[in-house]
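Figure S7 source data.
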Amino acid sequence: MSDDAYRFREYSGGCQCGAVRFHATELHDNPHICYCRMCQKAMGSFFAPLVGVRHDHLTWTRGEPAVFMSSEHIARGFCSDCGTPLFYQNLEGQFVSLTIGSFDEPHLIPIRFQCGLEGRHPDFSELTAGQIEGTTEGDNDAGWVEGIRATNHQHPDHDTASWPPAE
Ligand SMILES: [Zn+2]
Ligand SMILES: [Zn+2]
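Tokens for the predicted zinc ion complex:
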């Protein structure tokens, strides 16, 4: 499999509540992480994971993202129902950069570069070095995990005919 095979397949994704869904038929070759302060604030996180999609390769299949202009040049798309950050868009560019975490299969998309390094949290280098304690879902109380599962309002990681499901 060639190095860029991840680019040439169909992808779907959307927000946490399922009100906004997208479909992409090809990705740009730039999946990356941006640590700049504006991306941090827009994600409420330490970085933004983004990959470009050309306009003609992108369809919003359910709903439409709301938009906040973080500057005159940059639109930030998000779900107005649940708040999930969905895209970064330079209005002068030819791509919409979707948030990789909102894809149904984010693990299929590699990370090719990182930018805004000056904004990277100083503890990041410790995460994979094993210096910071880690747990998995299985380390939680089973009853708690089951309670979350039983009342889960998150859209599943695949397209659905309707959402939320009919009673
Ligand atoms: Zn939503
Ligand atoms: Zn940024």
